[in-house]
Amino acid sequence: MANSTDIDFQTMDPDPRPRDECGLFGIFDHPEAAQLTYFGLYALQHRGQESTGIAVAGDQEILAHKGMGLVSDVYDMPHLDQLGGGSAVGHVRYSTTGSSILTNAQPFVVHHKHRSYAVAHNGNLVNAHSLKDELEEAGSIFQTTMDSEVILHLLVKNLHYGFERSLLATVARLKGAFSFILLTSQGEVIGIKDPCGFRPLCLGKLNDTYVLASETCALDLVQAKFVRELDPGEIVIISKNGVKSLKTQAAPTRSFCIFEFIYFARPDSTFFGQNVYLARKANGRRLAREAPVDADLVMPFPDSGSYAAVGYSQESGIPYEMGMIRNHYVGRTFIQPTQSMRDFSVRVKLNPVKELLKGKDIIIIEDSIIRGTTAKSRVKTLRDLGVKRVHMRVSGPAHRFPCHYGIDFSTRGELIAANKSIKEMTDFLGLDSLHYLSIEGLLESTGIKDPENNFCRACFDGSYPVEFDASVTRNCMDT
Amino acid sequence: MANSTDIDFQTMDPDPRPRDECGLFGIFDHPEAAQLTYFGLYALQHRGQESTGIAVAGDQEILAHKGMGLVSDVYDMPHLDQLGGGSAVGHVRYSTTGSSILTNAQPFVVHHKHRSYAVAHNGNLVNAHSLKDELEEAGSIFQTTMDSEVILHLLVKNLHYGFERSLLATVARLKGAFSFILLTSQGEVIGIKDPCGFRPLCLGKLNDTYVLASETCALDLVQAKFVRELDPGEIVIISKNGVKSLKTQAAPTRSFCIFEFIYFARPDSTFFGQNVYLARKANGRRLAREAPVDADLVMPFPDSGSYAAVGYSQESGIPYEMGMIRNHYVGRTFIQPTQSMRDFSVRVKLNPVKELLKGKDIIIIEDSIIRGTTAKSRVKTLRDLGVKRVHMRVSGPAHRFPCHYGIDFSTRGELIAANKSIKEMTDFLGLDSLHYLSIEGLLESTGIKDPENNFCRACFDGSYPVEFDASVTRNCMDT
Amino acid sequence: MANSTDIDFQTMDPDPRPRDECGLFGIFDHPEAAQLTYFGLYALQHRGQESTGIAVAGDQEILAHKGMGLVSDVYDMPHLDQLGGGSAVGHVRYSTTGSSILTNAQPFVVHHKHRSYAVAHNGNLVNAHSLKDELEEAGSIFQTTMDSEVILHLLVKNLHYGFERSLLATVARLKGAFSFILLTSQGEVIGIKDPCGFRPLCLGKLNDTYVLASETCALDLVQAKFVRELDPGEIVIISKNGVKSLKTQAAPTRSFCIFEFIYFARPDSTFFGQNVYLARKANGRRLAREAPVDADLVMPFPDSGSYAAVGYSQESGIPYEMGMIRNHYVGRTFIQPTQSMRDFSVRVKLNPVKELLKGKDIIIIEDSIIRGTTAKSRVKTLRDLGVKRVHMRVSGPAHRFPCHYGIDFSTRGELIAANKSIKEMTDFLGLDSLHYLSIEGLLESTGIKDPENNFCRACFDGSYPVEFDASVTRNCMDT
Amino acid sequence: MANSTDIDFQTMDPDPRPRDECGLFGIFDHPEAAQLTYFGLYALQHRGQESTGIAVAGDQEILAHKGMGLVSDVYDMPHLDQLGGGSAVGHVRYSTTGSSILTNAQPFVVHHKHRSYAVAHNGNLVNAHSLKDELEEAGSIFQTTMDSEVILHLLVKNLHYGFERSLLATVARLKGAFSFILLTSQGEVIGIKDPCGFRPLCLGKLNDTYVLASETCALDLVQAKFVRELDPGEIVIISKNGVKSLKTQAAPTRSFCIFEFIYFARPDSTFFGQNVYLARKANGRRLAREAPVDADLVMPFPDSGSYAAVGYSQESGIPYEMGMIRNHYVGRTFIQPTQSMRDFSVRVKLNPVKELLKGKDIIIIEDSIIRGTTAKSRVKTLRDLGVKRVHMRVSGPAHRFPCHYGIDFSTRGELIAANKSIKEMTDFLGLDSLHYLSIEGLLESTGIKDPENNFCRACFDGSYPVEFDASVTRNCMDT
């Protein structure tokens, strides 16, 4: 157990990375359902490290095991043996703070009329508050502050219409970004994507059965074949009758979160036929064309910009180097350093290669700047050891607007690019120059056809595809 | 974590003790509410060792901490500090088996219309199934299989009548045995006892505030003064306006579980002015009169019959001895003994004092016989070391009927006294003689006036005070 | 892990009980040696709860597993499987404080010339310091501050004489109280008792092999038959040639620690043919004759004096009662109570039965008074609830001298009986009267023939059987 | 705790990486000695993950805390507070298997004549067996099977000459590779390097005091300034009198382990003025000249060859890519995959970017091939997804000889390069071509002057700088 005098790096870090919400995995009727879901979640661990859960429907009831922390810590073989075979759904959730957090671990299981339902959700409902008010008025009580719970209340309220109609009626009431997998105690596995298609969810085939997953890298690990992405507004029901697709009213254009390409997804995943690694490298190439600068080397700062940095190097001919070395053994908690150890949270994770960098002109590639405080510290570290010129190139556009669909950016007041000009940012960060990739550049380098009509880019330009209640800016309903 | 090759003594033991359900503690508005609740639960630990939880209402919201295991293992100081002050309710739950058991730990917290409610429950609703069907028909979904959840659904459904009326309407719908403490996010603490008064719940005063507890031993530990028992059917609301009592329709006679006197309660607790220790000793005295026998010594077998054994000795003049020595360090789990170690589960806990017992005529005092297998083994151990005659005297009547109000006796088929005559039992157990205390003897030795109209004794004579659905024989609704 | 804000009851308790050092168990060549040693230690757990270890010699090497805490916590099945069969020795150690304590857990294993040796020790060497100085002068280095390590250094230094001669030469150098079991990587198991026979050690037979144990209760659990006690100064070598006995120079009289009879040993154990339970009851009977007083009831205070209280009651005819109820779920660590909770460390463990005690004249039976502070608190608790007269009778003589042979009494300055008269103690403790059992009474009630020449009673009368270095008053060599 | 059904990746992996033994850190007289040592070990964690320990000498005694696992798991703030300030030495140890492993955790602390000594060791003594025989003949006993213990025995045996002379006499007796830090209870910190200088150890200055560390990256983290490397055969004594250097007989040439440059050391560390990152990149450049081949891309395979791959790309002009994506959340233990999941241990850690690699000619850069089985699996994975040609270039020479100085390579029989020709290896691994860097190429690309006389390269050419006992091939003396 983390000791109370330990501190968490997340809270030490004055400038956290944007964080996705969740990863989903589901599988229909397999004798090793729990185990395959475990492996699927393993591959999706980058989408959430706070908590994880697996629910399995076997023999007319749903068993679940959940826990705080990483997939490799939460489960052991007896857990998976106990969960056993059947149909399964699994979830990984991102790290947040707050009390009683195991309560919020998913999948979320409820009981109704001798049946049980489990739901695993990725996204944010912008009308969760009004739906909740309506449900409470009719006597519903809530166990959690998660919007995922609203989904199950609506589903059950409409079950008298029949299961499929209830699904359609439920989805019709939801507004916002949502991909979710529903599991019934009868063993059906249902994948649902919102009408704008904000969050990823794809269908795969594993021998004679089907799986659902947030990213193709999970299909790869369990050796399932990619079949297709779910369409915006699609409901896919996997049962012993095979795969059935229900269509709800889709939005006129897709609004896939472009941040999946820039940052969230694993580089070995593929969306809409476009590989993430190649898209990130294309970002870097485009960036080299949009914002060239002469320098001795180009380097990531240090990790998430690696692929764009390779692209920048290949386009510009400036050598790619790895000038900051990461300590691979940094744990999640850390003993408080002494007062005298300055900038410790930066230095414990990274150490620059002095001999490589001293006296050089360098280009550092970032994929995003949120508050800018971490970047500022790192630039200072480089300056202190004698780097001559530091140019920063960002492989995405400037973040000027908060996300209302579930990405945990800071509020607008904290977004440095919403409050400072490029010139002011350059000075604040201690740079010689700073350039962002253009929105056009980003869209084109994804390789997707007609990108203008396929991506949500509200965090860059404020064009929100779905209206939201201005008072709701977080992904959970903190009552 | 218990290793999978370890075995649990409960499962090793072929003849488990009857087990109570729960202990409750609540306190209104105190700066150390969480800590005092912790101590209250500590004193009530004998009522349940499976799981425990504390919920505190401070600053308009309810925080809770729950865990599997003993009070001393589940909480540490940071937990209590985090829960802080305000009003609180706590719960200890008995050890059962089954999946996803942390889910069933109480208090149970729900959210509704910007308020939260926590409930801690001791008892069993006999109409939980039909209430649940009705609620589900109207769209309610259930998180657990606990009947405590039904209470909260009903409460919320009726809130439009106002809070007090909703409480009355809720209690009016419930049938069975129930004492519960309800906590609201506004800080009110409500104690509720069913119309028959099956389960204990009393009110105490701690300086300027009030507490509720299952037994007076918890009042003693937190140094609260006993005020009074709740009446059957009473609702006590503790708020900043003091203590307000609402009365619902009480049953014509009280049906307090007489097993609290025989076995469940701590001997230093007092119900209706009668101390449990003295009642148990009186049982033993009465037993000596009802079933005298000549012997060299009288001894408990070994622990739970101690007080009755002292009484038997005092009445009969036969010396009291402690002939079986308990190992005080027996843990909950144990490494599987080797095949060659016979009767290990009996012997590891107890070792007879050979020098005291060899060649003697002895009387052993038990408080109950459920299946009889443990008693049989222990009697054999005594015979093996050379005890001459073994007489058993049981300080309660024979168990012939299952409990439908929450006590986890075995089913009727497993109750030895329901299936064998006294003669057959004497033979089966390897005794020279066997006598049970009469029902009259038990009732009179409690010291309670008009005992005929104050106790449920259905497990002895099958007269169930409240009708029950024959299909519901356990305290949880295993759907 | 105990949280740093938790406090340990031992340190809360202002008046700790005297504590023995250790329990020993050994077995020669058995396919389940590790498992049987585990069970033997289980039965001896009352002799030490700080740490435990098992070492097994199989296949020419010694494997060991040790840990802090109780036997039931330290080992699991994989540990025992890994240790496997062969010959084994095990140890339980009492709870003390101090740094790097796992280092001091026994058995202590060393390697020398392709052989290994493990030793488990119970006692205290009074000449450990001078032996250590001598060994260090010759270049020996020490891993611990335990005197057990001295034994092994001496053994190895003398091995060139041959193994048996080395054993004899080693024992000849040791002064003080010591029973130990030595295990060699060749599988021999050697039991050794000091010339005065201070500490217990007995030989048992389990089918075709032999075991050694501190108390007969361990033989009972593994179903071994008691063969005999080791004699003072005896060395017993168990090997494939059977049991061989070597005799060293014994002291003219035996000095068995009489505190084993009063307090340390389990009541179901037997020494020199006298059962401990019966001896303690005889103490009580003698006490009733030596110090009679009229009263309503006699009670233990509450646990360790139980057997003497039964004896007192039987002799005096005054009823035996259990007036203080122990909470059986008190854990080892506890959350700090609030300032306002007075006498908490007393009350959390015990609650008096008010209805039994109020207005009564009572006799409380203790087995020893060390500092007196706990007794004082408990007496006050009784007075506060309205007990009329409180007489204390102690089932042993007054402790006026420290033990130099390994019992962790307080220093003389802290022993209340060394510093106050009976009258002063009576006043200090708040009693109406106080009487100790006489030394003669104690000796006679053990039932041992010629008790004058069989017991060490230095803590009562200061007659130390073995000279000691006045600067060494603790059982470990704190360098 | 790892469940017994879990498996460890190290044991799953059929082709483990070569593993270094240890990392060392020491600091003289600092109020935060324990904490700074903790941070120093954090930076050196890559040198050993099995166990770690910190010993602090304050107030004339040495306190230590050790544990199995990572620095971030073993210590918490209370541990460091308890260790406190003074002088300190710390150690990280590599992961091995075997029983009673905590016993082997360092620093190793012993007591002698009211003083204590702690030693932390990196290396392997080739004459440990004969030294041990000699010591045992004189009566020394050993607690562990570590050669570090021999050092302390020798030191103490010679102390009558005085401390410095004893150090010199001790070092004169040791043969093999050894860098160690010795701490005395008087607070002196002594760094010692063997006459050949096999293992790294350097001196740094932190404000007014001095530190010792295996690598400069540890100096960087605690913000100490690099002073100098210890010379071969040098003894550095840090005391309140400053730094004193004693010289023993150095070997005619230095034999620094060249594997520090290729694999062990962190790339941000520097030895003899040459940065490791730059040396590895130079290896890659040299490799591109020695073994050019036409291809579409060059990539690491995937991690340890990154720096050489960058060099190869820069020299050849072939684009650098990261074609295999590592799952950053792979834990140390893993649930056994199902039978049907082929090559799981390879795939769970790595997933190739199919879209990047399909149909391409690629060069993969490895830094070493031990058994070749992992490489074979990975090459097959690439072939399976449609890579056209796979060329492997190894950034070091072929391993044909075992290390006798402490590096845990496989035995000669397991070294693929010792048993197969390049042609056979190419076929076995499924490659289109395979080339190793030449020894000359490696030596020159370190950038060290006169490299022929500065490095041990016995694992490549069998020229062992120090004679060894052929029967001793492991770094511990498994008696």
> What structural class is derived from the secondary structure elements of chain A?
alpha+beta
Low-pLDDT regions of chain A: 1-15, 96-100, 472-479
> What's the overall average pLDDT of chain A, rounded?
88
Oligomer: homotetramer
CATH architecture of the largest domain in chain A: 4-Layer Sandwich
Radius of gyration of chain A: 23 Å
- The tally of beta strands of chain A, per DSSP, is 25
> Which bin fits the share of residues in helices of chain A?
25-40%
- CATH-wise, what's the superfamily of the largest domain in chain A? Aminohydrolase, N-terminal nucleophile (Ntn) domain
- In terms of DSSP E residues, the strand content of chain A is 25-35%
Strand order of the largest sheet of chain A: 4-3-5-2-11-10-12
Number of domains of chain A: 2
Q: Which geometry of chain A do the CA atoms define?
A: elongated
| Count of individual helical segments of chain A | 18
Descriptive account of the structure:
Four copies of one chain form a homotetramer. In chain A, helix 2 (33-43) packs across helix 8. The two termini of chain A are 29 Å apart. In chain A, a hairpin with a 2-residue loop joins strand 3 and strand 4. Chain A is of the alpha+beta class and 479 residues long. The longest helix of chain A is centred in the middle third of the chain and has 15 residues, at 276-290. The first copy, chain A, has 18 helices and 25 strands. Chain A folds into two domains: 6-252, Aminohydrolase, N-terminal nucleophile (Ntn) domain (Glutamine Phosphoribosylpyrophosphate, subunit 1, domain 1, 4-Layer Sandwich), CATH 3.60.20.10; 274-461, 3-Layer(aba) Sandwich (Rossmann fold). Chain A has a seven-stranded antiparallel sheet with strand order 4-3-5-2-11-10-12, covered by helices on one side. In chain A, strands 6-7-8-9-13-14 form a six-stranded antiparallel sheet, covered by helices on one side. A four-stranded parallel sheet of chain A has the order 18-22-23-24, with helices on both faces. The radius of gyration of chain A is 23 Å and the shape is elongated.
